[in-house]
Amino acid sequence: MRTGWNTIRLTLVLLCLSPIVTSLQEDMEDPSPHVEVTLVAEQNGVQEGGLIWLGVHLDIEDPWHLYWKGKSDTGMPISLSLQSPEGTELGEVLWPAPTRYTASKNFLDHVYSKEVTLLFPMAVDPSLPPGTDLEVAVRHEWLVCQKETCLLGSGTASLSVPILKKEETPGWSERVEWFRATRARLPQTMPSDSERREDGQAILRRYWQNGDLVLHAPEASQMVFYPHERSTPVHDLKKNGFARGDRMTLSPVHSPSVSARLTGIIEIHWPDNPPFFYFLEEIKP
Amino acid sequence: MKLLTAALVLLVTACSGTNADTATTDVDENMNEVAYASDASSSSGTINWAAAPSVAAVGQIAPDFTLTDVAGNQHSLSNYIADGKTVVLEWFNPDCPVTQAYHKKAPVMKSIYGDFKDRDVVWLAVNSGAPGRQGTGTDRNNRAVTEFGIPYPVLMDSDGNVGHQYAAKTTPHRFVIDQSGVLQYAGGIEERESGTNYVRQALAEIGKGQSCSVSWSKPFGCSVKYAD
User: Fold this and answer.
1) Which of A4, A211, B196, B202 has the fewest Cβ atoms surrounding its Cβ within 10 A?
2) pTM given for the model
3) Is the distance from CB of A76 to CB of A192 less than 8 angstroms?
4) CA–CA min distance A90, chain B (Å)
5) Residue B193 — very low, low, confident or very high, per pLDDT cuts 50/70/90?
6) Are strands A46-47 and B222-223 parallel, antiparallel or unpaired?
7) A14 inside 8 A of chain B by CB
8) Taking CB atoms and an 8 Å cutoff, what residues of chain A touch B228?
């Protein structure tokens, strides 16, 4: 079916989603140690004038880990520089919730282990004709670590996405499960206090008490807070950013000049449910 | 006296109001207080080192220390400040690839050091790794001085006390202390996305008597190999 299609060779437009200014990695025999990076599409093509989700999949050898873009004591977040042809537009990269990693008593990091797929949408201008391929590329750089050792890695990955006619329905790619796994850990908009789960319990109550933010998720068995890079720091995040039970108290680091603003992802476990992930953004009154 | 105190507050807080990553907070996770250093200097203008907080904070007197370098020479922060120097501290691990990158592939530190060494700026590398952990030991660090061509001293902090005093987290993690002994910048050497070099910027601004436009940024790199 693809025979005779012409690949579009348009000038690549650099889309600086998280650009790499200076590659730090030295010339190494293995430029991508312990990590295999591929660029994948959720579907087998994109309809003319349509939108497709793409993903940068990082397959991480156990027991190594890569770093989330939010707060961590150490490490270096995965850095991506995406390129796509003229006539396409790339959206924001979506990062799934990480996991906590405490290699020593001194540090708390937020990391990805085993595998992670970072998602981003690509919109295609209707002027681009069906029967052509869109060449998308990503340049990536990261620091992969395990307990004692870190290594820098970098490289490029590319992908060809065919443009389909409007009447053609694209099928799911073989990698669709990677997209579903990421979406299961993407934070959702926080429901208001008045919204309730089907069983009638308030989903998450939030209030300030004595300068601290209290999060109360009735019947929850576990709560975790992953602060965004721009969040006001929290006292002893290693201890207070994880709670067994239905209540978590976050104490922002005191700054007389600026209002505390706690932002990040809250992970909540209710029995017999997969974990829920919500955006948290609370400003101290 | 009130005017003098106000002037001192302005002086020591000049560089401490801006965070590289946000306009909504000006503190680091380990910097519990910021920019309130009215007690940082005595009314006579001499530095009251005892006023330094237990953990370094931007805008306050930096914790004094004395450490020995790999060549056996002692270095004291208070002595350098008394000599009118601005001091850059760089946490160091010769076996961390990020440290290696900034010394070998993109030798930024050497470049900044070269540009400022004749402008009353002292640069000190500090290794807070515990014995037996990665990149530690006088021999390994001595070899690194040669291997990397490091033109400034590498200080050994094997018990990690100075590292903990500064809440040094990564290698590299940089701190810039002005001639008043006040910590004016803490963080990474550069903004990875824009390439803005915060240490160079801070040194240039301090040299001109200007406010630091960025006083904190997120450090990145390997963890400091403290004793567990």
Assistant:
1) A4
2) 0.87
3) no
4) 18
5) confident
6) unpaired
7) no
8) 104-106
Bond prior to A227 in cis (omega within 30° of 0): no
Inter-chain CB proximity A21 and B104 less than 8 Å: no
Q: Do A232 and B24 touch (CB under 8 A)?
A: yes
pLDDT (tens digit per residue) in A211-221:
999 999 988 99
> Which residue in this structure is represented by tokens 């906590």?
A100
Structure-token pair, residue B98: 């990020």
Q: What is the rounded radius of gyration, in angstroms, for the C-alpha atoms of chain A?
A: 21
For residues A242 and A258, what is the distance between their CA atoms, to the nearest angstrom? 25
Rounded Cα distance, B162 and B153, in Å: 16
Q: What proportion of chain B, given as a percentage, has pLDDT over 70?
A: 80
Q: Catalogue the E-assigned strands of A22-77.
A: 35-41, 46-47, 51-60, 65-67
Strand order in the sheet with B154-156: B74-76, B66-69, B154-156, B121-127, B86-91, B174-177, B183-187
Q: Do B26 and A21 touch (CB under 8 A)?
A: no
User: Of the candidates B29, B194, B218, which has its C-beta nearest A253's C-beta?
Assistant: B29
Q: How far is CA A182 from CA A53, A112, A234, A281, B161, in A?
A: 12, 12, 27, 22, 41
- What DSSP string describes B45-100? S-B-GGGS-SS--TTSBPPP-EEEETTS-EEEHHHHHHTT-EEEEEE--TT-HHHH
- B169 and A74 within 8 Å at the Cβ level: the answer is yes
Nearest CA in chain A to B226: A106
pLDDT value at position A204? 86
Sign of CA dihedral B201, B203, B208, B210: positive
- Decide which of A205 and A118 is more confident: A118
CB pairs under 8 A between A and B: 123
Contacts of B224 in chain A (CB under 8 A): 74, 106
pLDDT over 80 at B202, yes or no: yes
Torsion over CA: A214, A218, A224, A225 (sign): negative
C-beta atoms of B221 and A25 within 8 A: no
**Residue A6: burial class (beta carbons within 10 Å; 0-12, 13-18, 19+):** exposed
What is the residue whose two structure tokens read 């977040």?
A77
